[in-house]
Amino acid sequence: MFSCTPAFALDPEEVLVVANLKAAKSKGLALYYMEKRQIPKKNLVLLFMADKETCTREQYLKKAVPPIKRFIDQNSQIRAIVTVFGVPLRISSPERTKTEKTKLHELEMEKTALENQLMEEKIMGSKLQQKIQNKLSSLKKAMNNYLITIDKTAAFDSELSLIKKEEYDINMWLPNPFFLGFKNQKTKILKSEVLMTSRLDGADEKIVKRIIDDSFEAEKEGLKGRAYFDARWKDPGDAKVSGYAFYDKSIHRASQKLLKENRIKVTLNDDISLFQNTHSSEAAIYCGWYSLAKYIDAFTWAKGSVGFHIASSECTTLKDKTSQVWCKKMLDNGIGATIGPVGEPYVESFPIPEIFFDFLTEGYLTLAESYIISLPYLSWKMVLVGDPLYRLNLKN
After folding, report:
1. What angle do CA 100, 379, 27 make, to 5 degrees?
2. Which of 129, 164, 193 delimits the end of a domain?
3. Which of 4, 16, 136, 315 qualifies as a cystine partner to 114, CB 3.0-4.6 A?
4. What is the pTM of this model?
């Protein structure tokens, strides 16, 4: 299923750059990147939004969508959008609808009634306690599932990927038609309605400029270093697995493919402990899990390195100086490109490691192209930080 895909051949003329006039350095960084990659000067849209990492859904629809959509409607060659330092990272959830509020109120009332009933039965020493407890547990699960289905918080860039589509449901996620795992399935979204997205972002303008320069240099001179894959369990072989076990197996498969094809030297850790700061080689490639919002400074990062950590909310901020989320800290410490969610994404929404790294390290597809074919869902939480035009040139 994952073995073939047409080459997208993304060109600079097909990239739209989006900057924010209200954010210092945003326009300057956009122009610097465009000159470096020879993106036409006309392929720049300037927004006028608050310089904050989070915007409201209303601000997104009124201040971001119109100018970007107007440009895309007039320039049909655009296939990718890159947002630049100062453009919001996340879109907050709008107020719940009347129907949603009513449903949640009904569930809360039922929960309270069961809790009161359980308390009474405990006092009386009734044998009905377990039956009521089971009902309460099932209700709590139903409430949690309902909250998931009405989750409207999204990554700014993930919503931009569907800016060409007139109307769609913003509750939860939408299957990505470019994802190779959905290759033989019909999706509600057409490929022609999807744009590739990424961002050039970080804690400050120096980090953003470094990302641009390092990617450009690594592409020309070659990416040097080692691939580090951090699984938590032994390879399950041909066993059918799901959830975290599926991603753990995919980490194994990604490392095995690179080893077999001798593209780069590979180190695999397959026990419960994570890589620690005992590794002297520079990391060119990285994928691992699960240290929630607690970055482990295990490597030095090679120029143009690419990697991501599978854990919830690892891209909730790129600016907060006190934060230890993986995306921010990896960028602070020198990585060239990374991926992470702006909120709880659920593990099955992460890019599939074996697809992403296999196509990326072949060097034919760009960073943005490798991301879009390995990403299961759109209009959701995931963010790609890095130069969308970056093509890996491994030096073993």
Report:
1. 125
2. 193
3. 136
4. 0.90
